[in-house]
What does this fold into?
Amino acid sequence: MRGAIRAALAALALLTAVPALAAEPTGERGYLLVMGSFTDPEKRKAYSAALPPIYAAHGGRYLGVGGPGRGVEVLAGDWAPRGMVLALFERPGDVQAFWDSPAYRAAVELRRDGGAFDVLRLAGAAPGATAGRKSYLVEFIAGGGDPAPYRAAAARIAAANGGTVLVDLPATAAPLLEGGVRVPGFAHLLAIELPAEAAEAAWTALGAAPERAGAGPVSTVRLAGLPPG
It folds into this structure.
């Protein structure tokens, strides 16, 4: 009898352990990268005002928001100057849930015919733990070379400057949620988070890295992070 009880308890322990193992977090985060420009200021205002509670409902938050001359600077390459938004979500799946939600679908109607946008769904590492204002370097590697050595160099340079490579993905793993084409056309994408005060030094090192030339043409955009909190 005691043996049967012990066996039943052991079986119960195994059953209860399975969900716990399945629920273990992977540590991977979701990112939404929006690139575009409004042609209608009133639609921009209405759309922008509607977004914060929708992001909050899906565990999302802005990391950086800007436009040309207002937090967005093209450092290298053929990337056309336009607005950029980088947003963070707790899990990769939360990005699609946000995008497909009835609340966001309603918000999209507020900007219909009010501009042109390209939106990428990304997955990557958690942001760094360092406090203070951040700056983001978003790099589009056009292809034609081997990006692996440059990607490794970028990771080293980011770490040496107190930063983190948030996203390191081929274009095939960066689904286009909106936009007619993959603008600006790329084979690989890097998104690097840096302390704002270290962004210039990191960019200087990235631009001078010998591995960069072997990766193919690289377009680099600097996006200013939002103030902490």
Remarks:
- The longest strand covers residues 29-38.
